[in-house]
Design goal:
Blueprint (H helix, E strand, L loop, with lengths): L20 E7 L5 H9 L3 E4 L8 E8 L2 E7 L15 H7 L10 E7 L3 H11 L6 E6 L1 H6 L3 E2 L1 H8 L2 E4 L8 H14 L10 H13 L6 H9 L4 H10 L1 H16 L6 H15 L3 E2 L8 H9 L4 H20 L1 H23 L7 H18 L2 H17 L1 H14 L8 H6 L4 H6 L7 H10 L9 H11 L14 H27 L21 H35 L6 H17 L2 H17 L3 H21 L4 H24 L2 H13 L6 H9 L6 H9 L7 H6 L7 H8 L15 H13 L4 H11 L3 H28 L1
Parallel strand pairs: 1-4, 1-5, 5-6, 6-8
Antiparallel strand pairs: 2-3, 3-4, 7-9
Helix pairs in contact: 3-11, 7-8, 9-10, 12-13, 13-16, 14-15, 15-23, 16-23, 20-22, 21-22, 21-32, 21-33, 22-33, 23-34, 24-25, 26-27, 28-29, 29-30, 33-35, 34-35
Length: about 800
């Protein structure tokens, strides 16, 4: 992980190079910070990551008092006591230590008026940063409904900063807030920080002088207060272990003086907050029972709350898994229509035959389709998350699930991303942004792909239907009615069992560290903002298309190239084509023999490339299909010739793909996959499916000369085992070796392949999103490696044990 820029003395605040001033927005989670940011910046915003961290920061632009401000929305936090690089972002940005970012001219601290004391704790830390501060007092309407009266002018005088009451969700008070921001930036006067005991101030000043003033005083104070925190680790790395010994001695002296660390911070800050709010804030003598209290009696109840949560999760899951199909199917159909139209143009000579047209159709178009088809799932999931967060329910869901998830080292907030991954790991991984703790978020990201997503379903259905069919009159050798369902249940359960175990292992090894206490502030329930929801959906969808889409498209083009090249051909192949064409000519009607004579002559004159031969077969097939549609009376008569041409087309396509780079790779890997019960053809299909696991169905169709089989064809079939591909798999035989002539696919082989797919990370989209969310290539590489190894071992055990039993 990249270490941020070393500390330096407090830099002088300077306007950005384009003369814009900068304002940084800080606040606790659930205070309406994002809503305020959207209201201030409008549509003029962008999302990004700083080097070395995984959290997102949003940047926008606003106009305050005629001055243009760059607005930075820093990650929500309860404290500036950083314990990781991610949590250090806010401090580094405000102190001007973040590379490529000028120090803010003003800090806007957003505070929940209905939970004033708790929110002001973070504000008191911001007052120490040496930057002008403006307090945006949000949710004043909620505080008023609870009987809380706040004199914002008196409160501002006591805190030493301007306090502006606002309602961010209704855009009220924003003009006055802009005026206050502009005024604070003009004066450039930092506020006074809350005082600490004299003994602490003396030790902090002494340590500051020891470090020659090269470390800002704020970080010197944090160095003393945050035991084992990120500031201490970073300073020890620069100044050596001697600084750690000195800090330990300081803490011992403070403890002896009755200023024990870290308790002294909470005592000093809350004492100052109580003094500042006394008289400025009036609260009712008795707290009234609110709608939030009444709802929480049900929604946080151990039994009723869990039932409500399961119902909500069912609706979310159904929307992603089933509801999204109504949008995904038209996208997929549109892609197929475009591909068929382009193939028709190639077949009729309007587009040249060769690698360019093949790249356009099978590389780029397929790649774009595999990116865009995920968009409905991502936008639906983030729409639900935005609603649940904005209305206040997300905190309750995390509270309910924390006890269960904590047993495997995760937090309650990990449950929704993991459940979402059962539909698709891509939106599930993106949903981990709701997890504040970096190690918990990273652990959830690394295990989310273990959940069986919808792309694995066609493989399960095909192999279960072909090799574990239900016993019937037509199939007396089948299995009892419950066996196929039980196998499907077990395949989905693999992820549910393995993912928590891997998460627990990661938290005890690579992601080992002190487990932070589960602190979850229960926000008030409120109506979600439609603007916020739509903005969240748009941002998530656009971010996926813009960043993940490029790498996914590149991976699909790479697979196309591996299947397409090399395109050379031998004399034996040319003679085989000549013999096949001669046979087709002899059985063709008289009016079609002229066309075959021209092709046969072309072999001797120009040679015959695969593309020309394949496209001629496709053109003949299209012509016969057109004749059958135009004259239904001749359809039965033409059917045999159509089937023969289709079989020849599939055979040619399969033969050339078997001779491709990917085919050669499959043959090379056969000794590796042999212990799993696989031959080189299964190995080749597995390798081809690493960018997108659903590709294996189409690849198997090509390899076994059944053409490009679609996953939807398998899922919609009444019995996948009776499809052409299902029959081809059952009839497949080993081509060489000790098993030559024996069936390739047996029950242990089918189970081995399904277990491999259940555990392996065969999805470029998933790996790309992991790269984006972690801001590192190390973690997607690690995910791919450990899941592939886990899948290989699982498939090996299943095949060997299964073969021994059978």
């Amino acid at each position: 992980m990249t270490v941020p820029t070393p500390f330096a003395s407090d830099p002088i605040r300077q306007p950005a190079a384009d003369a814009h001033l900068t304002a940084a927005l800080v606040g606790n989670p659930n205070t309406g910070k994002t809503t305020l940011f959207n209201a201030l910046s409008g549509l003029n915003q962008r999302v990004g990551n700083y080097p070395g961290v995984t959290v997102e920061t949003k940047k926008g632009r606003m106009i305050c008092g005629g001055q243009v401000f760059d607005l930075i929305d820093l990650p929500g936090t309860y404290s500036l006591a950083a314990r990781s690089p991610d949590e250090m972002v806010a401090v580094d940005v405000i102190l001007g230590h973040q590379k490529g970012e000028s120090r803010p001219d003003v800090v806007v601290a957003i505070v929940d008026a209905s939970n004033l004391d708790r929110n002001l704790y973070l504000t008191t830390q911001a007052l120490e940063l040496g930057v002008p501060v403006v307090i945006a007092l949000n949710m004043v309407d909620v505080a008023k409904s609870q009987g809380v009266r706040i004199d914002h002018k008196q409160l501002g005088e006591r805190l030493g900063v301007t306090v502006v009451p606002i309602q961010a969700n209704k855009a009220r008070g924003l003009d006055k807030l802009r005026e206050a921001i502009a005024a604070a930036a003009r004066t450039g006067q930092p506020p006074k920080a809350p005082p600490f005991p004299e003994a602490f101030e003396h030790e902090a000043e002494s340590l500051y002088q020891t470090l020659s003033g090269e470390v800002p005083l704020f970080l010197v104070r944090r160095l003393i207060l945050d035991v084992g925190g990120y500031t201490e680790n970073r300073l020890v790395e620069r100044w050596g272990p001697g600084i750690a010994e000195r800090v330990h001695a300081i803490r011992s002296r403070l403890a002896a003086a009755g200023c024990g660390v870290p308790a002294v911070e909470a005592k000093a800050r809350y004492a100052w907050i109580r003094e500042a709010t006394t008289g400025a804030v009036q609260r009712p003598a008795t707290r009234s029972l609110t709608w939030t209290d009444r709802l929480d009696r049900v929604l946080t109840h151990r039994v009723w709350g869990t039932l409500v949560f399961l119902v909500i999760m069912f609706l979310v899951f159904e929307a992603i898994f089933t509801g999204a199909r109504y949008l995904m199917d038209p996208i997929s159909a549109g892609k197929d229509f475009l591909a068929d139209s382009l193939r028709d143009l190639v077949g009729r000579g309007y587009l040249p035959t060769g690698p360019l047209s093949d790249l356009l159709i099978d590389g780029i178009l397929e790649g774009v389709g595999n990116v865009v088809v995920f968009l409905p799932q991502i936008m639906i999931l983030f729409g639900f998350i935005a609603v649940l967060e904005d209305c206040g329910y997300m905190a309750r869901a995390a509270f309910l699930m924390d006890k269960l998830m904590s047993r495997c080292g995760l937090s309650g907030k990990s449950f929704i991303p993991m459940l979402s991954s059962v539909a698709c790991a891509v939106p599930g991984i993106m949903a981990t942004r709701v997890i504040e703790n970096r190690r918990d978020r990273l652990a959830t990201i690394l295990v989310a792909p273990l959940m069986s997503c919808s792309a694995r379903l066609p493989v399960y259905v095909l192999l279960i239907g072909a090799f574990l069919p239900i016993r019937s009159e037509q199939n007396p050798g089948g299995f009892a009615w419950y066996v196929p369902g039980l196998v499907m249940f077990c395949l989905y359960s693999i992820g549910l069992v393995v993912a928590p175990l891997v998460a627990l292992l990661l938290k005890r090894t690579l992601l080992r560290g002190e487990t932070p206490p589960f602190v979850m502030e229960m926000p008030l329930y409120k109506m979600p903002s439609l603007r916020t929801i739509l903005r969240r959906m748009f941002d998530s969808g656009w971010a996926f298309l813009r960043r993940a889409g490029t790498l996914i498209l590149a991976s699909m083009v790479l697979v196309w190239a591996l299947l397409y090249f090399p395109r050379g051909e031998s004399d034996e192949q040319r003679q085989a084509y000549l013999a096949q064409l001669q046979q087709n000519r002899d059985t063709a009607p008289e009016e079609e023999k002229v066309r075959y004579d021209e092709r046969i002559a072309a072999i001797g004159r120009d040679g015959l490339t695969f593309d020309v031969h394949f496209n001629q077969l496709q053109r003949d097939l299209d012509d016969l299909n057109d004749q059958a549609k135009a004259d239904p009376a001749k359809a039965d008569e033409l059917k045999e010739r159509i089937d023969a041409l289709e079989a020849e087309s599939n055979r040619v396509h399969g033969e050339w793909n078997r001779q491709s780079i990917l085919g050669w790779t499959g043959r090379t890997l056969e000794p590796v996959v042999y212990p799993l019960g696989w031959d080189w053809r299964i190995g080749m299909a597995a390798v081809a499916s690493f960018p997108a696991r659903e590709v294996i169905v189409g690849t198997l169709g090509i390899i076994y000369d059944e053409g490009k089989v679609k996953s939807d064809d398998i899922l919609s079939a009444s019995n996948a085992g009776d499809t052409r591909l299902g029959r081809a798999l059952k009839n497949a035989r080993w081509e060489s070796g000790p098993r030559q002539g024996k069936p390739v696919f047996t029950i242990p082989t089918a189970l081995s392949l399904m277990v491999f797919f259940a555990l392996c990370c065969q999805c470029a989209s998933t790996l790309t999103v992991i790269r984006r969310e972690t801001n590192s290539w190390w973690w997607p590489l690690f995910t791919f490696t450990y899941m592939t190894g886990l899948a290989y071992v699982g498939a090996l055990v299943v095949y060997q044990v299964g073969s021994w039993i059978v």
